[in-house]
Write a structure and sequence with these properties.
The protein is mainly α. It has helices at residues 5-10, 31-43, 69-76, 82-86, 95-112, 115-118, 132-154, 165-174, 181-202, and strands at 19-23, 45-47, 53-55, 59-63. Helices cover 53% and strands 8% of the residues.
């Protein structure tokens, strides 16, 4: 079994004596997995095949999901029609928009999972789409990672990377899909910064 009492105990925090269990993209799990989770969410107990038990009394269970993501993207930035023309490109969603996103997400969850499963979830959080300011901060983090990578790998041959404002603007403008957000930004950096840098290094141009 992937989850045993000893494995759960090993990841308990020292100060709070709590474990965090994460099920990423829960909608992709087999139906048998969600049936198994029913017992955990209800009684806090997982009964294993060898008749031993795993106690989740001191655990916080989180599940992530992309359910409703496309519908939410369309609601915030319609692809066509009058709404698309009047939508503000970089504006963060308003509180009314956020309430609408929560409704879309909850409806998608209820379509996918049985009512008894949904009723055992204490709280559902709907993440807001990334706005321009968030993408700018993520770009800084990714550039820091690239800089660390260069310093770690190259030793005496290391160099510093400085991006002028127009280069930052160019990279951010290349990320055209709100749906893929930060992942597309990482791919854009790889294509337009890392690969050209690697080619320059191979040619001895740096």
């Amino acid at each position: 079994p992937l989850l045993t009492q000893s494995k759960l105990n090993q990841v308990m925090s020292d100060r709070a004596n709590l474990a965090i269990v994460l099920f990423d993209e829960i909608e992709k799990a087999a139906p048998s997995m969600t049936r198994l989770l029913l017992g955990i969410l209800d009684k806090g107990i997982l009964r294993l095949g060898d008749n031993t038990s795993v106690c989740f009394d001191r655990s916080m269970i989180f599940m992530t999901s992309n359910l409703g993501a496309r519908e939410m993207a369309r609601a915030i930035k319609p692809g066509f029609g009058f709404e698309a023309m009047t939508a503000e490109g970089d504006a963060a969603p308003s509180s009314a928009d956020y309430a609408r996103l929560q409704e879309i997400a909850l409806a998608a969850v209820k379509r996918k999972f049985a009512p008894e499963f949904v009723n055992r979830i204490d709280a559902m959080l709907t993440y807001r789409p990334l706005d321009a300011a968030s993408m700018d901060q993520i770009l800084d983090l990714l550039l820091d990672d690239i800089g660390d990578h260069v310093r770690r790998r190259l030793g005496d041959r290391m160099f510093y990377i400085e991006l002028p404002k127009r280069a930052r603007r160019f990279l951010l403008e290349k990320v055209v899909s709100a749906e893929y957000g930060a992942r597309e930004l990482r791919r854009t950096l790889h294509r337009h910064l890392m690969q050209p840098l690697a080619a320059m290094m191979a040619d001895g141009a740096i």
